[in-house]
Amino acid sequence: MITLPLANLLIRRACADDSRTMFEWANSPDSLAASLRTSASYDWDTHLAWFAARVDNPDVILLIAERESTPVGQARAEREGTEAAVAIYVAPNQRRSGVAHRLLDYLGGEAARCWSGTRLIAQIRNHNRASVELFTRAGYRHVADKSDHGVFQR
Ligand SMILES: CC(C)(COP(=O)(O)OP(=O)(O)OC[C@H]1O[C@@H](n2cnc3c(N)ncnc32)[C@H](O)[C@@H]1OP(=O)(O)O)[C@@H](O)C(=O)NCCC(=O)NCCS
Q: Which among 1, 22, 27, 147 is least surrounded, fewest beta carbons within 10 Å?
């Protein structure tokens, strides 16, 4: 856990108490629009199983950013072989204040510490200009184009 100077932002690993907040974020329209997997919303039982498989999993780094004890965003990396897929979400009323940038920075540090040599991969839908900007500024390189998304790597 670390406290960063950016407006009292605290970044920590996710725990069971975060399940409800993450459910709400996963089902927000912009989160679903950014997803490559589905645009359909998740039901609670599906989410609970998804969350249980990730929290405390050594192949998953699941981070929560908090301000004044309120979760304001999440970032995660899921490792498979030599690569880890990265995803991120920041609550709409907390955007453009550097939360995502800090989360990606911290996630990169944790991945290097826990999974030395693992490449971080972000798949970003073509319309998602904010994410393209975010990941590029965080040091990810555009390495491939797929039909509806780009692949970025760090
Ligand atoms: C993308 C997202 C995570 C950015 O979160 P954020 O906390 O607002 O981002 P930050 O404030 O840390 O921004 C860091 C940089 O990213 C870029 N950026 C962020 N939002 C942007 C936007 N709306 N338009 C253009 N660039 C943007 C900028 O370069 C910004 O730096 P700057 O503010 O100095 O210009 C947030 O908009 C979000 O949760 N979107 C919905 C989910 C999503 O798209 N997830 C990514 C799936 S790959």
A: 147
Count of structural domains, the chain = 1
CATH number of the domain encompassing residue 63:
3.40.630.30
Give all strands of the β-sheet with 2-4 in edge-to-edge order. Answer: 2-4, 9-13, 60-67, 70-80, 83-90, 119-125, 149-153, 141-145
pLDDT band with cut points at 50, 70 and 90 for residue 38: confident
User: Ligand 1: which residues within 6 Å by Cβ?
Assistant: 30-31, 34, 87-90, 95-101, 122, 124, 128-131, 133-134, 137
Indicate the SS3 state at residue 152: strand
Asked whether the beta carbons of 76 and 62 are under 8 A apart, the reply is yes
Whole-structure pTM value: 0.94
Residue 79 structural domain: 2-153
pLDDT, one tens digit per residue, over 57-90 is 999 999 999 999 999 999 999 999 999 999 999 9
